[in-house]
């Protein structure tokens, strides 16, 4: 029988729980691609899915498409140029998993908590990402070698 971890059985309200654990849900998994149109066509043909968002995010140096999967998304990222973060990632690693994004209730609370634990943050302040969301990144060297994005839930 699996062992219950401390805090997992606590009787907290949903909001208290969300603020307590900091990670509420998997928002998206981001995949770097060389050709966004070809990647969308591949997902359409093989999995019969369509993006519900597609936008150019100049501040991130990408054009992105968000494909809904359950309550989360697959985010396809095409760099706007070779010197953007995703462009450098593609030249070094090729196409594939770029980052994992978690939804949080309050990005300020999450960043303060992470800073207080000594986490290696790329962003100490939130910035605007795709879909107009407030986001922040945690360096891959901080934990497990994976780039982590925090995405604040919105009321929209």
Describe it.
The protein has 156 residues and is α+β, with helices and mostly antiparallel strands. The longest helix has 12 residues, at 36-47. The protein has helices spanning 14-21, 36-47, 85-93, 107-116, and strands spanning 25-32, 53-57, 62-69, 72-79, 96-104, 127-128, 134-138, 148-152. The mean pLDDT is 89. An eight-stranded mixed sheet has the order 2-3-4-1-5-8-7-6. The chain is built from four helices and eight strands, in the order αβαβββαβαβββ.
Topology at a glance:
Layout: H1 14-21, E1 25-32, H2 36-47, E2 53-57, E3 62-69, E4 72-79, H3 85-93, E5 96-104, H4 107-116, E6 127-128, E7 134-138, E8 148-152
Parallel strand pairs: 1-4, 5-8
Antiparallel strand pairs: 1-5, 2-3, 3-4, 6-7, 7-8
Keywords:
156 residues; alpha+beta; 8 strands; 25% helix; globular
Query: What does the overall shape look like?
Result: globular
DSSP strand (E) fraction? Answer: 25-35%
Oligomer state equals single chain
Bin the helical content. 25-40%
Helix and strand string, N-terminal first? Answer: HEHEEEHEHEEE
């Amino acid at each position: 029988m699996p062992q219950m971890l401390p805090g997992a059985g606590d009787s907290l309200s949903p909001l208290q729980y969300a603020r307590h654990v900091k990670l509420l849900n998997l928002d998206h998994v981001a995949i770097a691609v060389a050709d966004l149109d070809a990647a969308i066509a591949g997902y359409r043909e093989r999995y019969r899915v369509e993006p519900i968002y597609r936008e150019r995010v100049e501040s991130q140096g990408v054009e992105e498409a968000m494909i809904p999967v359950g309550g989360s998304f697959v985010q396809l990222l095409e760099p706007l140029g070779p010197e953007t973060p995703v462009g450098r990632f593609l030249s070094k690693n090729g196409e594939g998993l770029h980052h994992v994004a978690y939804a949080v209730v309050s990005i300020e609370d999450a960043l303060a908590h992470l800073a207080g634990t000594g986490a290696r943050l790329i962003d100490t302040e939130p910035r605007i990402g795709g879909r107009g969301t407030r986001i922040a990144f945690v360096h891959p060297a901080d934990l497990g070698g994976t780039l982590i994005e925090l995405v604040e839930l919105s009321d929209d």
